[in-house]
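Following the same procedure, sequence and fold were stored together, as reproduced here:

>
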Amino acid sequence: MIELTAYTNQSSSQSPPLKNQFISTQTVFDPLRRLPIIHNVNVTKILLVTYFRGGSTFLGDLLQQNWNSFYHFEPLHYMTVGIRIENERTEEAFRLIKHLFKCDFINVPNYIKWVSIDVHQHLFEFNKFLQNTCYFRPASCFDSLFIEQVCLRSPIQIMKVARLSMRHIEKLAVNDLNLKVVYLVRDPRGIYSSRKLMDCQI
């Protein structure tokens, strides 16, 4: 909790220095103060695996309807924009995923720096729990320590990835038995039509 003390001096030049001085103490709102830290083994981790324009944005919003769900939206966007991650970079992708599921934002400085850039900030805007807690201090939305503290208080973590194939996800799931994988499949005609409208790589 942060305390802010304000001093307003209403004294005249003839008055004693402290005679008419008004002192007030205001407690600044701390959105995390009453939220307990949840041990990682008790956190439900959901990995939403999908394709580009596969309808996952809608499903991701449904999964984070619990007000304190922490939504990692497309963190692998940091590694590649419009293509899937190839074999030689899967270990790097796995490391990022594991760091984020452990709420370890301190050890991914390049990711935080990248997502803090104006054109990438929208990726954090999908995380409603984070946005609600940093609403009054927008700069903290991209502060590693603050993000970590918000994440540590979430009983449910959801992560959407569209840049890894299921054969890669299988390796990740085997190493983390506490991981629940949702594999979203959409009619390929719908995917094709949506990608065409968005001028995505087909």
